[in-house]
Structure formats: C-alpha cells, structure tokens
Amino acid sequence: QVQLVESGGGLVQAGGSLSLSCAASGRTVSRVAMGWFRQAPGKDREFVSAISWSGGGTYYRDSVKGRFTISRDNAKNMVYLQMNSLKAEDTAVYYCAARRQMFAAVATTPAEYADWGQGTQVTVSS
Fold first, then answer.
1. Under DSSP, is residue 104 helix (H, G, I), strand (E, B) or coil?
2. Which of 26, 22, 27 is nearest to 51 (CA)?
3. Are 117 and 4 in contact (CB under 8 A)?
C-alpha cells in the first residue's frame, strides 16, 4: 500500500494561484497513473485531473482546462497540480489518488483508484 500526503492548499482570492503537491511513500508510484479529485461540502467527489504513469498523458475536467496543470516527478515520487485563475467554484478539499495496477491507463472515477491521501483544503474567496 502507498501513503499519499497532499500539501499546498490554502486561502486565495479569485484569480490567484495555488500549487498542490502529493508525496508518495511506502512504494513507488512511478509506474501507476495518478489523479487529483476534489469534494465540496454536500457534493460528490469529482475528477479534476489525471496523469499517466509516464507523464506523457494528461487529462482534465472541462471546467479546469487551461487553468490547471498536472505534472509528476517519478524520481521523487511526487505529483503536482498547479492551479491558476482560481474561481470560487474551485473551493473544495483536494485529494491525490493512485491507481493500483502498474501501467494501467488513467481513470476519471474515484472507484478506479486504490490509494488516497487525506486531502488538502482549497478555499477561493470571491
């Protein structure tokens, strides 16, 4: 099992930026697809972005395309989410997640991810 720890959340004004990090330990995640999800109060957890194990493929929900960028550093066992032009509707707890099977394709539903971090709060004030 892998342990995931998110960091970088906080309070920012609309239009601002935040950079989230996800540190993996316990086992390497360099051969598994990784994803970011978010959950706002009273809402279901939703897909934000995902990246293939090699980093060659990235995917985003429509509402964050052009504003968010996912990346990874396999040598450091890290995944990142750069968030620019933040909006009030981006306010949520953001979770990092890892797929279990090596070399599996990226996925966009929470059920396809086996390991999760504890989440980091992102609050965007309007």
1. coil
2. 22
3. yes
Identify whether the C-beta of residue 115 lies closer than 8 Å to the C-beta of residue 1.
Answer: yes
d(CA 16, CA 21): 17
Residues β-bridged to residue 48: none
Check if the beta carbon of residue 75 is closer than 8 Å to that of residue 94.
no
Per-residue pLDDT of the chain (126 residues; tens, 9 = 90+): 899 999 999 999 999 999 999 999 998 899 999 999 999 999 999 999 999 999 999 999 999 999 999 999 999 999 999 999 999 999 999 999 999 999 999 999 999 999 999 999 999 999
Tell me the longest C-alpha to C-alpha distance in the chain: 41
Q: Please name the residue that has the structure tokens 């342990």.
A: 3
